[in-house]
């Protein structure tokens, strides 16, 4: 599975490409951080982020894009900017028919470190170890983008099994309701 991990942001947007092999084997193809200056107009900053993400998608052809879900932040402006950056990337993926999955920061931390409240240093250390990198990815946005891709590679099989189980349960519920309706009709006659 080829996963593009995205740590969205306007000032720094982390982009990564990870390939998942058999089991939990992973390898990094590329990681980078797109930067936009704060004094630049918002629309132009979003365009720069979207252009970079689209170039990555066209070059690496990911099977899925994993984006950090904006969960809660104390600074509303930062949360809005993060959500907007994630939104333009999700839109770029949707235009290419690439599935998009959102993961919360605690889901990513738990998947990578085993602790949903791990700090950035722990995440970076585990990303470095998991991917067998000689040097820790910097800045933290790069490590976070890699962590998102790793999280998705490891969570995707479980998410797929859950979706199949939910679909099967829904089919069985409908069949049961149809049988009940038929039995009620038979009793009324």
From TrEMBL:
Binding site for Mg(2+) 2: 68
CDD domains, sorted: RuvC
EC numbers, comma separated: 3.1.21.10
GO annotation terms (biological process): DNA recombination; DNA repair
UniProt catalytic activity: Endonucleolytic cleavage at a junction such as a reciprocal single-stranded crossover between two homologous DNA duplexes (Holliday junction)
Co-factor: note: Binds 2 Mg(2+) ion per subunit.
Positions annotated as active site in the UniProt record: 7, 68, 141
Keyword annotations: Coiled coil, Cytoplasm, DNA damage, DNA recombination, DNA repair, DNA-binding, Endonuclease, Hydrolase, Magnesium, Metal-binding, Nuclease
Entry coiled-coil feature ranges: 159-186
Cofactors demanded by this protein: Mg(2+)
Binding-site list for Mg(2+) 1: 7, 141
A cellular-component GO term for this protein: cytoplasm
Name of the top EC class for this enzyme: hydrolase
Broad class of where this protein is predominantly found: cytoplasm
Subcellular location: Cytoplasm
Pfam families: RuvC
Gene Ontology molecular-function annotations: crossover junction DNA endonuclease activity; DNA binding; magnesium ion binding
Gene3D superfamilies according to UniProt: Ribonuclease H-like superfamily/Ribonuclease H
InterPro entries referenced in this protein's UniProt entry, alphabetically: RNaseH-like_sf (IPR012337), RNaseH_sf (IPR036397), X-over_junc_endoDNase_Mg_BS (IPR020563), X-over_junc_endoDNase_RuvC (IPR002176)
Subunit description: Homodimer which binds Holliday junction (HJ) DNA. The HJ becomes 2-fold symmetrical on binding to RuvC with unstacked arms; it has a different conformation from HJ DNA in complex with RuvA. In the full resolvosome a probable DNA-RuvA(4)-RuvB(12)-RuvC(2) complex forms which resolves the HJ.
UniProt function note: The RuvA-RuvB-RuvC complex processes Holliday junction (HJ) DNA during genetic recombination and DNA repair. Endonuclease that resolves HJ intermediates. Cleaves cruciform DNA by making single-stranded nicks across the HJ at symmetrical positions within the homologous arms, yielding a 5'-phosphate and a 3'-hydroxyl group; requires a central core of homology in the junction. The consensus cleavage sequence is 5'-(A/T)TT(C/G)-3'. Cleavage occurs on the 3'-side of the TT dinucleotide at the point of strand exchange.
HAMAP family: RuvC
Homology family: Belongs to the RuvC family.
Name the UniProt record assigns to this protein: Crossover junction endodeoxyribonuclease RuvC
Gene of this entry: ruvC
């Amino acid at each position: 599975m080829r996963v593009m991990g995205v740590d969205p942001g306007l000032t720094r947007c982390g982009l990564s490409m990870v390939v998942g092999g058999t089991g939990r084997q992973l390898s990094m193809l590329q990681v980078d951080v797109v930067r936009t200056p704060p004094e630049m107009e918002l629309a132009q900053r979003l365009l720069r982020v979207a252009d970079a993400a689209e170039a990555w998608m066209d070059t690496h052809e990911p099977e899925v894009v994993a984006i950090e879900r904006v969960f809660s932040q104390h600074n509303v402006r930062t949360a809005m900017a993060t959500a907007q950056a994630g939104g333009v990337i999700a839109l770029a993926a949707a235009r290419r028919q690439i599935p998009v999955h959102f993961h919360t920061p605690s889901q990513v931390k738990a998947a990578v470190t085993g602790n949903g409240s791990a700090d950035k240093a722990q995440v970076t250390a585990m990303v470095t170890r998991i991917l067998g990198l000689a040097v820790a990815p910097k800045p933290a946005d790069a490590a976070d983008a890699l962590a998102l891709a790793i999280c998705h590679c490891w969570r995707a099989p479980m998410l797929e099994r859950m979706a199949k189980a939910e679909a099967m349960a829904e089919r069985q519920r409908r069949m049961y309701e149809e049988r009940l309706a038929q039995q009620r009709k038979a009793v009324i006659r």
